[in-house]
Write a structure and sequence with these properties.
The chain contains four helices and no strands. It is an all-alpha fold. It has a domain of 59 residues.
Length: 87
């Protein structure tokens, strides 16, 4: 059975909406807002852990793993682009 013009337009609109969601997801994955959010949540988590574990200077020492995590997530996209070019 042949699809009507109305059904085709509905399908196209659905695909456009999905593509927009995918584009926004990709933008979020590489955004500085996401990185900043991860940095803050990682820092808070590590500070709480350091307090519970009774480790020294939790506010200062929590900065190291938090920054290391952000650096590692920031370089992953760079490495991914490099890898894609070579494969």
């Amino acid at each position: 059975m042949m699809t009507s013009l109305k059904d085709s337009q509905k399908d196209i609109d659905h695909i456009k909406a999905r593509n927009k969601r995918v584009e926004l997801d990709k933008a979020w994955e590489t955004s500085w807002m996401r990185r900043l959010t991860l940095l803050v949540f990682t820092y808070i988590t590590v500070v709480v852990f350091f307090f519970v574990a009774d480790l020294a200077d939790p506010f200062v020492n929590a900065a190291v793993p938090s920054l290391a995590f952000i650096i590692s997530t920031s370089t992953v996209s760079f490495i991914k682009r490099w890898w894609i070019k070579r494969v």
